[in-house]
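Exercise (ungraded).
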Amino acid sequence: MIKTLCGKIEKLNVSETLRFLGYGKTALPEESVRQLLAECESEVLAAQDLRACYAVFDISAHGEKLDLGFAEVESHSLYLNLKGCKKIVLFACTAGVGIDRLIAKYSRISPSKAAVMQAAGAALVEDWCEELCAIFKREYGDMKPRFSCGYGDLPLALQRDIFAALSVTKQIGITLSDDYFMTPTKSVTAIVGIR
Amino acid sequence: MTILEKLKSGRVVLDGGMGTQLQARGLPLGVLPEEWNLSRPDEVTAIHRAYFSAGSDIVCANTFGANYFKFGDRLEEIIRAGIKCAENARKGLKDKFIALDIGSCGKLLKPLGGLDFEDAVALFKRTVKAGAEAGADVIFIETMNDVYELKAAVIAAREVCSLPVFTSAVFGNDGKTMTGTSPEAFVALAEGLGVDALGINCSLAPAEMADTVERILKVSSTPVIVKPNAGLPQERGGKTVYSLGADDFAAQMVPLVEAGARLIGGCCGTTPEYIEKLVAATKNIAVKPVENKGLTVVSSYTQARYFGHIPVLIGERINPTGKKRLKQALKENDIAYVLSEAVSQAEKGAHVLDVNVGLPEIDEPSMLEKCVSEIQAVTDLPLQIDTSDPVAMGRAMRIYNGVPLVNSVNGKRESMDAVFPLVKKYGGVVICLTLDENGIPSTAEGRVKIAEKIIEYANSYGILRGQLIFDTLAMAVSADNSAANAALGALDYIRHNLGCNTSLGVSNISFGLPQRDFINSTFFAMALARGLSAAIYNPNSQEMVKTYNSFLALSGLDENCANYIEYASSVSAGEITVTVGEKSGGAVTGDLKYFILKGLKAEAAASAKKLLEISKPLDIINAYIIPALDEAGKGFENKTVFLPQLLMSAEAASSAFAEIKAKLNPAENAKNLKAVLATVKGDIHDIGKNIVVTLLQNYGFTVYDLGRDVPPETVLKEARARGVQLVGLSALMTTTVVSMKQTIELLKSELPSVKICVGGAVLNEEYAKEIGADRYCKDAMATVRYAEELESKI
């Protein structure tokens, strides 16, 4: 059964945003960049429309060939990640199309703001993933780290099966291109093993 | 009885869930539901039959996901089989109908996604054609999350067949679609396109939809569809059940039907039992007539704007008449300038933006289409499509995401025959100028006569009075001192006796007079008092804005004068900000380099302006701007300056440069190198490319930015036409490196002397060499360095 969730993040993860912008752990942003960040934070938070859908599947492994319950896939890295798991949570989540609109807007009128919006959007969806994993943990117990298509040798083509299994487009409005690119761009799909 | 007669005669019962019914009958995960039209037709027919027996007047064929993307050339077969299943279920029944069911194609349209609007139209046309030929009675475009896709589908249906079209969208608890459309904007768009029924389906239970349904009913002059879910899915004993049972579902539907829902049914989780109980619970509720609300409304993809209550302000800044800078921008294809004007007017409070790009030396239809689409990417205000070229008008109206305000038509037969068919097809509201073959009548009565003629003629095209706004033509009062009275007299009569909305291009009144703002704002106040519904105005004119805000307060349209008080305090706060701005920069006044390095746009521009009083333009560039950019660039290369800072510096440099440009002899400034930049075909990511464009321009290179998703032939054509020495290509996705390679091959064979540099997330040194590029540039600064290297060889 597919369940859906909505969410709201109250505060932007600034250090994560800076990390996406290339700032190392020690580099501190200039005052002007801090101001820019603050402007972007309020716009990004206002534009967020956090949604997620997920379902639990029974899985089994035959060597490194995994039956994920919604698709079969051969992947060494996922095999290692899921070792010892009998079930997984499969989820898709998005920060919403409003973030893409902001990025589209500022990429046309202010490159610096567009870059910060990109990073802030990425930080936002990362935090949303963390929140979701915390919810799954409460519901299903201890979880493995989440694993997405493109990590290690897990093929991007699995996205197609994930979208079908969760009816992602219908449930939460993420669309998938022929190249497995998601729009809204600040979206994530992942597999999380239940220990 | 036809389906439209049925709809006219009373309430119509739709069916319930199909997908969930198929799953209950064993449709395995991963199998497309439409496959069962061929492989298990008896099951599909049985579901339809059960809905007919339960009381459904219309069933939706099992074609929700039937599009070319999913089924390729099997599409027609799948659709024929789907309609056939419904026809078999209907055998022996009377006055029952079959809908070709069309859902989202699963891809997002440009500018947010990659699907071109016309490609979406073509995709839906193929589905509609197959369904119409197979014998569907109605096209039902449903579960739409994006009204732009909905528009493409409705246009496709209209262009392929003459069947009735129904449409419904999905609204969340927040009363918006997933792409942010309000119920009012959805109704405006669907009615503008002339659908026969519109409404809401899926996502929520009936009770949760109540607010949205009420909002739709309030503004819709079209029969309203309500097709909710059986609540939320829940797991019970390993099985998926929906939270709302059939009795509760029916009970929750009752108030929505009482409120006026005319086409009723269920979506996910509902079954024939739900429909049966729905029919039983609602059959004795009196049918509410569908009223013509007579609204005058335009919309964007998020919001609707109504005329007739609060006067509407239409920003006039995107119109080249008398604007040198805009003319230059349009000639140079400088869309960024147009967009900055759009954003600034939106920030200053315009409600609608006029878009006019008519210049003799440009291709107006393609420029207008491009500008409309680009402006919609930076603002969600409704737009006024302003052109005298019907081809340009038609193209812009077609791709506009919403229903536009159209400027304009007049009482000449030729004008009306060109414009009214477009308004009929794409919807929207049209500004009607009260002039005709005999010119502009000098009296109010003469102008009213023309208005009456236009109303009657529009009616013959099926265009309602509410879709017309009359501009009674403000003429120069300096030339004819009855000019104001004629315009105002006609305006008053049309508004109060003909019941139509009115508009004026206010500033024409003051032609030939000094201190035009004085006259304009007083005339504006007079017109508002006489019933002006909309004005084309300059958002930068303090006098006009003052008049408008004061008028709202004085005419009871501003509760507690809250709007006025906020406005008034912003005026004084604005004045204070100016002084503070100067003070904060005081310590380092004139140090342009510092402002650029710090990324302070306004200060950099002001400082450049000051420097121009004492220095030559070129000296300022060489002594301040270039060293500042170099310092920022070096810092970026050494990882002491990061991307946002680098870009802010570039933007500050641009703002300083804009000041200097005006005083600069072009021959003095320019570097010799010219470059074309593009994100390659298939790739819609352009942030990286935009950064490169900004920096190259800052360094004085001439850059032609072709945008994203650019075919190889276009790159070649532009590179040749512009005579460039460098082409920069960007790609983010592995899949589009192929088109990068094709572009390089084409350029190398046709223009071997042109150098090509490439960049983007998927590329590296080795890969770049492999596909034949002359240089891999890992970031924007690397591209600048490469351009400088080439410049030194010219």
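Further reading is listed at the end of the chapter. For now, observe: The mean pLDDT of chain A is 93. Chain A touches chain B through 53 residues (CB under 8 Å).
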